[in-house]
Specification:
about 250 residues, alpha+beta, Beta-Lactamase, Arc Repressor Mutant, subunit A, 2 domains, about 45% helix, globular
Length: about 250
């Protein structure tokens, strides 16, 4: 398929960020139509799934345990199948089978969505402003996309491990490159944290507000707020003051 070859070339060119990958996918049509938004949800080593990249006004998901969720999302990832998650009116209940786990901008409406597995690493969600009819061609294409994205996430993780092993924790990285590294930790003190959470920790340590961090990393303030909660939980602390004390020991 021409589209698969194009995606492969895009992923091989300069290790693009997951946001840029989502943008690339939105600009490419599938058999059923062109998506208006795309989102990559990544699975971490603790079994939690979180938003790792997006393009368009896609929903903001709170990190949740994939295996325990018993949802359409977990079915897609664990069974390696492409599934339809419906439109904006029933998306939350259909995809997640749980209330309060995601926020959907009321002004962002879509008529259908597809969830594709990223082999053992997460899921890709495409949102459409028209009702689509899921086809075998779509399934083949999206499973192939998921396989390519799994390889890309592996490369990002390997890049992160390389930085860690070479002691480059304090190297200054451009904002666009922050999510190129993928999942992992750049600090030996907080190995349980994802790379993004470790970046947020360093920003909190410098006294930045959630709003400032969101602007620096090109994420929503809501996502940063959710990530700080996860950071405090993983480190077993109660807030910023204790975080600063722990990081300065």
């Amino acid at each position: 398929m021409k589209e698969i070859a194009e995606l492969g070339k895009h992923l091989a060119a300069g290790m693009p960020s997951l946001n840029k990958v989502c943008q690339f996918l939105v600009l490419r049509s599938i058999e059923s139509g062109r998506p208006i938004a795309a989102q990559i949800l990544q699975l971490d080593s603790n079994g939690e799934i979180f938003v790792a990249g997006s393009f368009g006004r896609a929903p903001q998901f709170k990190p949740m345990n994939l295996v325990e969720s018993h949802s359409l999302l977990s079915e897609s990832i664990l069974e390696n199948v492409v599934l339809e998650a419906g439109g904006s009116k029933n998306f939350m209940s259909t995809l997640l089978n749980k209330k309060g786990i995601a926020e959907l901008d009321p002004s962002f409406t879509f008529k259908s969505s597809l969830v594709a597995p990223i082999v053992f690493r997460g899921a890709l969600i495409l949102y459409f402003d028209e009702k689509i009819r899921q086809s075998e061609e779509d399934n083949f294409f999206l499973l192939a996309v998921g396989s390519l994205l799994a390889l890309h996430l592996s490369r990002l993780s390997e890049a992160s491990d390389f930085l860690n092993s070479n002691g480059t924790k304090n190297v200054q990285v451009s904002e666009d490159a922050l999510d190129r590294i993928g999942n992992g930790s750049t600090s030996p003190v907080v190995r349980a944290l994802t790379h993004r959470q470790d970046v947020i920790v360093e920003a909190l340590k410098r006294g930045k507000t959630n709003k400032e961090i969101a602007e620096d990393l090109d994420f929503s303030e809501s996502l940063i707020r959710q990530e700080t909660v996860q950071i405090y939980r993983k480190l077993g602390i109660t807030g910023r003051k204790q975080l600063t004390a722990e990081k300065n020991r």
